[in-house]
Amino acid sequence: MKKIGFLFIGFCLLTNLSAQKVYKLDASDVMEAPLCGHLKMGNSGPKEKAIEINSLYMTLGGKPILPVMGELHFSRIRKDLWEDRILKMKACGINIISTYLFWNHHEEIEGQFEWENEKDLRSFIKLCRKHGLFVVPRLGPWSHGEARNGGTPDWILQKKYLKDRSNDVVYQNYVKRYFAQIAYQLKGLYYKDGGNIIGIQLENEYWYGKEGEPHIQWLKDTALENGIDVPMYTVTGWGDGSVPPFEVIPLWGGYADAPWVEHVGKEYQPGNFLFDSFRDNENIGNDQIKRQDVYMTYEKYPFFTCEMGVGVQNTYHRRLSIDPLDGMGMMIAKLGSGSNLLGYYIFAGATQFTGKLWSTEEEQLKTGYWSRLPVKSYDFQAAIRESGEIAESYKKVKKLHYFVNEFEKDLAPMMPVIPKWEEDGLQVSVRSNNETGYMFGINYSRYHPKKAQKSVKFEVKLKDKMLRFPQKGIEMQDSTVFIWPLNVELDAMRLNYATAQLMGSVDNCYLFFQNRQIPVELSFDKSTVKGVEANRAKIKEESDSWIVNGLNSGKDCVLKVQLQNGEEKYVVILTEKEADNCWLLEQDGKKVCYISDADLYSSLGDVYIFSTDKKAAYYKLKTGMNPRFEQKAVIFNQPQMDIRIQPKGILEEAKWLETANFHGIEPYQQRYRRFFFKEFNLDNPSKIKKVTLFMYPESKCILNLNDTWVNQEIKPNQLNEIDLTGYARKGVNLLFASFPFVEGKKQFAARVIVEYYNYDRIEFSTDSSWLSTDYYSNPSLTREFPQPMMPMVVDKPGYADGIAYNTFKEWRLQVPTDALEKLNNIYMRISYSGDKAEIYNGYMLSDDDYNSHATWTVGLNRQEHSVEGKELTLVIYKLDKDEKIFFDLPANGTDEQADVKKVEFDFECLQKID
């Protein structure tokens, strides 16, 4: 029996060993010396802090850096809110802000340039400089950014003898004038002058390969002729982007989904979550030019990105829901593949501001552009939402940014090792300088749950060391992403490895966090570490290392590390949730660490906390001997405010006017009619898009607008929708309705809605200004007609409140005066059924949303125009059952009915903390 027992144990050991998955990577001889001096960039600035770019990375004062760049569109955010967004981006570890310039924002009408208010480029760049952030303007002149005509003014495209986006001499003339205007705004703000502009982008998605190089070169030369002299000139590289050799740097990107594609099904892009040295991505944008030949190779250019999306902009036919891990997973894939500039599009959601002549979004029906977008909302499911709220994706990538910010000098020169793994399995890469490095892991893919990888171990060969870890195989669950240090020296403390992610440091404390439920194990090199102390941990001494495991991560999980040189260092292992809520900020000139479920940022040495809760707890790391997190709390003085929405009937604001009140009609009046006249003016810079009359008459009538009879039947005792678009005109209009004399008491009510191509909307309803008169013949330009008098206004009938329109429904919202006086923001959260929703602030469309079955959050303080003391109108449209639309999230009910399910308000306060 004993013999059988030993055989059984041996069989189990062999089975266990065979079940282990060992990922082996050789990073012992991967370093390359960068090629320098071949890129023809502009003035790099003073020598001691020169910004220069080689074939692998960027340097600042000769030291490698790995910047984090996020996009914010200044002309799509109110000027008084710029600072809020800038501070939130900086708190997330962003150190460069990129921003599109949309030509049609600044010269919508030919020759009339605008650089004020939200279009004030110069003030925006100076505000970024105030808070220590670099800026990269993306000049265009074609930018896209889901803008109308890609940002090209309509008047350019309407010229018969002009070819846009080319070296056409007429187009060049207008671009020169536009660039001169930009240069005037940027004067003195370049890095060479002590400013913060370190680069520009020329054009965008210019997919013409070799044949497009002369135009890009001309744009660069024109920029230089106007004094736009910067350390970095870039273009987008994907889709055979045109790259004049070494004159510009091609930048890359990737999105988790494609809202522009034609189909209405799931879009599978597993390659976004694989490590790969191939930089291009055919899934960015639509209508890319397909070529059989290879345009160029990029090994002499650094791997920089400018359009990595933590979200995407929903289009009408694709209503997507991007997971917070999507952006994080893609960025780790790029970083682990060797990317040395992490560029996001878009990082702060925004609003399409109102144009004078046209709406400013990518508009499909009028311009023929690819996608149909919300008229106002440019939320993009961004890290900072259009409402101003911080998203979960923000907290995911924040941990990554803090790590990159602190360890960029070592990480940027490291070369990637990218073995080929099974696509469905765990993806692993290493970046190394031969002696040290970092391991990157991804077990995640959108729409494709990954199998849990069990009994996983790693073997990494470095120049003078072989690392095999952890001591016991670990399980990699689905949705696991990580970055782990390998033989890294943290000051004088050498860490052989850690199965926890390094985030940053404060004074003598290094901050790590546990990735999901992966057991944390650390190995310290005994040549630098004399001993390790920790509560509730297993510490094992080996010949050349200290192995620490059995840890319970959390704020109180602190390791005391005694160094051979007599110093003491501390290692804190947070949970992943605590790391999401961790903030590394500047306070009184020092780096500090806070943990809070609330949100924080710092401004000029002060730290602020903001939350929609009435009380917010936070923990501040006290460093020194025996570091610990001290708990404090703030109580916000939230004002008492009752904001509600109320249903609004289609004719609720209309007065009912009497059309008949006869009990016996005189013979001579049998053919008489009662006329109602309404004069109205349709002056607006924009063209009329649509004029609709909603009318409920109790008897037959006919209509005339501007001396033309309206050839549409009007049925009594029901709500009629009459299209007056072809009859209306700019300027003064005269509408009259003609009712025959009939027995009994009759009345009517009406409402006119006028829509413009810039999405202004004016409306008016029946009231005492609809003058009335009785007469036999119709009004005519050739005959005199009795002077109309004030109409008879009567009580609305009992059925009036039940009159409804089946295409849309409306609600009113009264915002109190000074509602935002003591608040940072008010968030209105709306759950609704239907196709889309709009909010009007007076005659202006203020906000809109394509229903994705997620709660729509509206930030009341970020509207284009103030809403305080105003009555807002919410309009929800039903969904046509024949529309072909892809929804990521299932509907709760039917969208063929337009209705509000739930509305809640959250009040956000902001307060300085110590």
From TrEMBL:
Q: Alphabetically, which GO biological process terms does the record hold? A: carbohydrate metabolic process
Origin species: Bacteroides oleiciplenus YIT 12058
Show the SUPFAM superfamilies listed in the entry: (Trans)glycosidases
Question: Which residues lie in coiled coils?
Answer: none
* Name assigned to this protein: Glycoside hydrolase 35 catalytic domain-containing protein
Taken from the record, one Pfam family name reads Glyco_hydro_35
Q: What is the phylogenetic placement of the source species in the record?
A: Bacteria, Pseudomonadati, Bacteroidota, Bacteroidia, Bacteroidales
Query: Which Gene Ontology terms cover its molecular function?
Result: hydrolase activity, hydrolyzing O-glycosyl compounds
Sequence similarity: Belongs to the glycosyl hydrolase 35 family.
Q: Which residues belong to any copy of the Glycoside hydrolase 35 catalytic domain? A: 58-401
